[in-house]
Amino acid sequence: YKQLRGICHGKPLVAVTIAEADYHTPPHLVRLAMAEAAANGASYLSWPTWPEKERTRMISLIRPQADLLRRNEKLLNDAPARRDAVLFLPFRRWTKTDRCAAFTLAASLTRANVQYEVICEDDFLPLPATKDRGERIPNSLRETKVLLAASRSDFGPSELPKLEKFSRSGGFVITAQETDWLQQVQRAIAKPSIALQAPGNVRAVVHDQPHRTLVHLLNLNIERLSSFEDKVTPASGLQAKVRVPFARVRSIRALTADVDGTSGPLNFSSRAEGRGAVVEMTVPRLEIATLVVIE
Predict the structure, then answer these.
(1) Which end of the chain has the smaller Cβ count within 10 Å, N or C?
(2) Which run of H or E residues covers position 173?
(3) pTM for the predicted model, two decimal places
């Protein structure tokens, strides 16, 4: 999703799923796909071709997720995603290689639950109708301290001066030519938006609205058994430390369409940090997807 966002420049993004070249995706994987699309500011397109004998069951299992998203659309729209780091995708090289290095880096960042944004060379272009001579730090690098790229050679001659200015202003330019690049990114971030103690197949995506922080939790541990059957292995005892941009936290609640997932008010503790706060909370049980609302 983040790579598509990096090259589509604000255009609407719609997702569909095909599991193992099968047009019939089992129900819990569909629900996960719907939640993942919502977590990434995209829409999910359902194109059901279910046999008649499967329709009632599939509808009954999938509809709760659709209803949850519809009821809470105000929590999904106008909610910018956090970005503790920025990943550079040189789209101009797309047709010159059959290996996208940025894809591998993005997968590692996502696995580590680093909150990041993907940009491409277009984001380095001078702003129109300004006196920018191409030397200013791009807007895409403002309010972030970390820029990650596969190689410094990914940047063109007109982009290098901007990197130098970014570095002089306190930013870190990190390349995957170093074997410990992920650890370098995490050290440079220093105060991450979220620190999650959970099984390795749990993903977190953080968004903000005025006086509200939203944390999408996704459990990828779903095994496809057949076209219409899958197996969910829940995650238990998730612990999260989340930084919020407001000082007073009144409540935290969990929203989910999963019958056995934790829902409702969550216990938490918070402490002040600058103009914001650090919140610590526990989610006892994550089935497929949960939206945590911090206010």
Answers:
(1) C
(2) strand 172-175
(3) 0.93
